[in-house]
């Protein structure tokens, strides 16, 4: 079994699916000759040619709009947006068209495509190469929103995304691209959409997170362990739809919940998870639900490390929930 | 051609009347633009694709969409193939390759380029045709679409129905360009300016562009210069922003009158035939309205289908609650 980092896992998964499915095409900026700015599409131009690995002009609305038109005619595009921070010129295409085509046409025109995009901080990218704005998309009915946190899940989730009949926003935590290596089976496998991963079992506090924060939360869980607080760590993986069953089962066990994400706290997706738990499991709760998040500022450059939730900050909330 | 022009004119008038009577909520007319509508759609093959805007009832008819399907959409009833999901004149008919459209202006233009790319990729002989107004040419997606089309040299025809107004804004305030057609040059392909009130001229220009696209010659931008004789929509009062003199000037250039005069002079149409045709068209529309009005509203639970291929758990919950407790 090969040991791969996340960007290698994404690359290999794209290649396998391209080999399997002749209707699959990739398009985006610098994805061909250059292999993508993070090298996620390295080598694919040589194998599949410029008609299937399409270097586009610099225009995000052009990329997404073109991909929608390709998909409607029966191709299966995987569009790459270089950074999630650059997706906004295509926001209209995503929100007004991609998400609504199936619905508004009464099912006549479903759009089957994937938008891959790196997101999150930790690379000294400042305001426009660091943001985590997943909530814009989870607030849009019609989209599926996925985010892996390790190479194994990256493959399994990307396979599901590419075979999904619905449009998928696939968020890749860029600071984890090359930091974790993992055994990734060469054979075909997929991880079902809407199913969370129980990273670690515990019965004192439930810690819910996703994407880049999973690694940070693992550290927080280890720190809590030294204080004899047993934390159950859930990696949602799929934000829309989300796995309420796994969340509620854990909350019933622990009665204490901390939610951690990189995005700004106000109107972040953690608020939705918190609301779902309060609506459905009030009787199980033994402490207020706490959120650890990015501050409600734009993403800072020099103070990036202060902005990003640290294991220590998460630990403080775990303690607070535990001792309430 | 003439019969379709009459049909779309009568359809416009009837639908506006229904709106005024409160029998439909909203409509966008195309009075004065019949030559663009009919001449523009005429050269297309059945398998060609059209990315339309919200003033294209005439194109739908030429492409084989029935009057009833159009009226069902305007009424948002259970027979509407779009399941009553959109406000009036937001047509979508897969069987006729008339692609469903969004209200934000211009998003479809770049999608047409993607479809043309896919057709070329699959080595099909499909041409992708897309319509939009002068207002849409100010949107970013118009630029992206023409830019991508030029770079990828795909079989697409851009058809700008320049009706002089984007709601209230006149064309001279939309762009400082002399016209829309010359913009094509900057993207590396041909732009064609045509009298949009002359149905045969529109047909000829479109036919040439469609043939060129089909034979691998790449994109064309056509600008058909016409005039929106009515308001922007049933909610608009054009007297607020333009003079009656201007409207009269264009009325004298009415595309239906012009085509009728031409055909009468050529001996292709008698007054009697014309009257009979008008009567027949009128009867067809009236019959269809009666039929469509009998169709009930879509069932309440249809609200939750087609958001995704399968209904997710939370929508199932919401649907069950609505069924159980009512709205």
Describe this structure in words.
- The complex is a heterodimer of chains A (324) and B (327).
- Chain A has helices at 6-20, 44-48, 60-72, 91-98, 101-104, 134-138, 151-163, 213-226, 244-254, 269-281, 304-307, 311-323; strands at 3-4, 24-28, 53-55, 76-80, 114-119, 144-146, 168-173, 182-183, 197-200, 205-209, 231-235, 238-240, 257-264, 290-294.
- Chain A is an alpha/beta fold and 324 residues long.
- Chain A has two domains: 3-183, Rossmann fold (3-Layer(aba) Sandwich), CATH 3.40.50; 197-323, 3-Layer(aba) Sandwich (Rossmann fold), CATH 3.40.50.
- In chain A, the strands form three sheets. A seven-stranded mixed sheet of chain A has the order 3-2-4-5-7-6-12, with helices on both faces.
- In chain A, helix 3 packs parallel to helix 4 (91-98).
- The N and C termini of chain A lie far apart (46 Å).
- Chain B is 46% helix and 10% strand.
- In chain B, strand 3, helix 6 and strand 4 form a beta-alpha-beta unit.
- In chain B, the strands form two sheets. Chain B has a six-stranded parallel sheet, with helices on both faces. A two-stranded antiparallel sheet of chain B has the order 5-6.
- Chain B folds into two domains: 2-296, Rossmann fold; 301-327, no CATH class.
- In chain B, helix 1 (2-20) crosses helix 2 (34-41) and helix 1 crosses helix 12 (271-294).
- Classes of the chains: A alpha/beta (324), B alpha/beta (327).
- At the A-B interface, helix 3, helix 4 and helix 5 of A face helix 5 and helix 6 of B.
């Amino acid at each position: 079994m090969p040991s791969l980092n996340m960007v290698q896992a994404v690359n290999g998964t794209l290649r396998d699916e391209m080999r399997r499915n002749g209707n699959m095409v990739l398009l985006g900026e610098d994805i061909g000759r250059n292999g993508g700015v993070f090298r996620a599409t390295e080598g694919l131009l040589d194998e599949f040619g410029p008609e299937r690995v399409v270097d586009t002009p610099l225009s995000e609305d052009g990329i997404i709009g073109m991909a929608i038109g390709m998909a409607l005619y029966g191709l299966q595009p995987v569009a790459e947006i270089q950074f999630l921070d650059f997706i906004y010129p295509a926001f209209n295409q995503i929100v007004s068209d991609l998400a609504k085509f199936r619905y508004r046409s009464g099912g006549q025109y479903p759009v089957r495509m994937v938008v891959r995009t790196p997101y999150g901080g930790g690379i000294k990218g400042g305001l426009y190469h660091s943001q985590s704005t997943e909530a814009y998309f989870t607030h849009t009915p019609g989209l599926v929103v996925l985010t892996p946190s390790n190479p194994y899940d990256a493959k399994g989730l990307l396979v599901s995304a590419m075979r999904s009949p619905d449009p998928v926003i696939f968020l890749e935590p860029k600071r984890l691209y090359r930091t974790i290596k993992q055994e990734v089976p060469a054979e075909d496998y997929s991880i079902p959409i809407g199913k969370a991963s129980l990273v670690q079992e515990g019965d004192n506090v439930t810690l819910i997170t996703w994407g880049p924060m999973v690694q940070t939360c693992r550290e927080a869980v280890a720190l809590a362990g030294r204080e004899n607080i047993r934390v159950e760590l859930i990696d949602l993986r799929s934000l829309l739809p989300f796995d309420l069953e796994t969340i509620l089962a854990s909350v019933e066990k622990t009665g204490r919940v901390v939610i951690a994400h990189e995005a700004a706290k106000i109107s972040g997706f953690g608020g939705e998870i918190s609301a779902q738990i309060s609506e459905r499991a009030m009787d199980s709760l033994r402490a207020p639900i706490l959120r650890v998040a990015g501050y409600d500022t734009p993403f800072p450059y020099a103070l990036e490390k202060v902005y990003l939730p640290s294991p220590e900050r998460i630990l403080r909330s775990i303690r607070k929930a535990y001792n309430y | 051609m003439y019969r379709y022009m009459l049909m779309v004119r009568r359809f416009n008038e009837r639908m506006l009347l229904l709106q005024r009577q409160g029998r439909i909520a909203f409509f966008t007319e195309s009075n004065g633009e019949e030559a663009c509508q009919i001449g523009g759609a005429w050269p297309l093959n059945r398998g060609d694709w059209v990315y339309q805007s919200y003033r294209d009832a005439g194109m739908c008819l030429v492409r084989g969409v029935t009057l009833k399907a159009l009226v069902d959409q305007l009424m948002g009833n259970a027979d509407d193939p779009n399941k009553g999901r959109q406000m009036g004149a937001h047509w979508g008919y897969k069987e006729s390759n008339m692609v469903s459209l969004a209200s934000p202006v211009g998003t479809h233009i770049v999608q047409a380029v993607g479809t043309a790319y896919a057709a070329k990729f699959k080595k099909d002989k499909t041409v992708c045709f897309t319509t939009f107004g002068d207002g849409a040419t100010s949107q970013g997606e118009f630029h992206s679409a023409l830019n991508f089309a030029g770079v990828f040299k795909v079989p697409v025809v851009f058809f700008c129905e320049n009706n002089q107004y984007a709601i209230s804004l006149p064309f001279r305030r939309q762009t400082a360009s002399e016209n829309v057609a010359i913009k094509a040059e900057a993207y590396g392909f041909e732009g064609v300016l045509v009298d949009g009130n002359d149905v045969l001229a529109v047909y000829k220009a479109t036919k040439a562009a469609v043939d060129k696209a089909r034979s691998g010659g790449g994109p064309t931008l056509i600008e058909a210069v016409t005039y929106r004789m009515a308001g922007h929509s049933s909610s608009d009062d054009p007297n607020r922003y333009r003079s009656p003199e201007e409207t009269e000037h264009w009325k004298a250039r009415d595309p239906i009158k012009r085509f009728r005069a031409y055909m009468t002079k050529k001996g292709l149409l008698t007054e009697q035939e014309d009257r009979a045709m008008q009567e027949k068209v009128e009867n067809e529309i009236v019959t269809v309205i009666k039929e469509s009005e009998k169709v009930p509203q879509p069932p309440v639970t249809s609200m939750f289908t087609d958001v995704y291929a399968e209904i997710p758990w939370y929508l199932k919950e919401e649907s069950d609650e609505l069924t159980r407790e009512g709205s």
